[in-house]
Predict the structure.
Amino acid sequence: MDAFNDFLPLMGTDYVEFYVGNAKQAAHFYKTAFGFQSLAYAGPETGVKDKASYVVRQHKLTFIFTTPLRSGNEIADHIYKHGDAVKILALMVEDATDSWQQTTSRGAVSYLNPITMQDEQGELIMSGICTYGDTVHLFIERKNYKGVFMPGFRKWDSNYNPKDTGLLYVDHCVGNVGWNQMNEWVSFYENTMGFRNILTFDDHDISTEYSALMSKVMSNGNGFVKFPINEPAEGKKKSQIEEYLDYYDGAGCQHIALATNDIVATVTELQNRGIDFLKVPSTYYDDLIERVGKIDEDLAPLKDLGILVDRDEEGYLLQIFTKPVEDRPTLFFEIIQRKGAKSFGKGNFKALFEAIEREQDNRGNL
Ligand code: FE2
């Protein structure tokens, strides 16, 4: 699709909001381990009576951690069902009212009718639609807002400001959906949001002995927003997607890929701060250069850290995956550095999924 007939122009990811059991501690973890900085806060002290939200930022990455202050409400129920989870993938738009009209008129279910929020720093308009599971896309129009985050939030000054880890922006967010549901959600993104399917992986591309899945990558018109959608496929034993669906109790966000310009420095820092990554066998590196050709990086630190490399027609990419960042085997993060490649590391799937299977087996879920 060319930009001319893109009925939903997106400027990128505005923020990711997590519903969590303890937002104060979650924000502390993402500051400490991932290098986010305190940005804004909303809660009882700012006139919000039923929840507390902590906003942290690193370069163009903004995460919100929200917790309910009592039981018996939508947020508490979400956490009871899904555990700590990604609730909102918020997208930056020029016109949140038009975004809502364009998508809901094409069949998207409304989550939030357009609302205007104001304070002395200006006005911000937001609207929202439902996507897979209990996950939501909000459209955020902030061109007339000059405040620190959005009306209702105050600046969060902290005297604890750990150094950043070089994480820059959201590269892509992956959703896991149920058996035979992938194409339904592909159609949803095509029909209601004008996305197109830029890559498809079938179960031949990505089945190891056990951990089969299928995946289609959906991209918006300008390529700023990419949502791969996975569904489980039949394998010898339980698919990694099935394990997720069991523990998440339904469809939801599986991983968020965070971009860096220096993956060796970023991953060194993250490991030093206690983030655990999936490890492939060291034999992966034996014929790496033969497989991917010449790369700028020294092999030794990639091997030490467990960073994977893959090449496509346009260049190469370096990537690594964390273990799940919570006790349920659900959400994890990918760290990615693109050097021309626009793909997703298909050449690494087998080694990677075998590493995932070893973890699944350790949990007794294979
Ligand atoms: Fe990914």
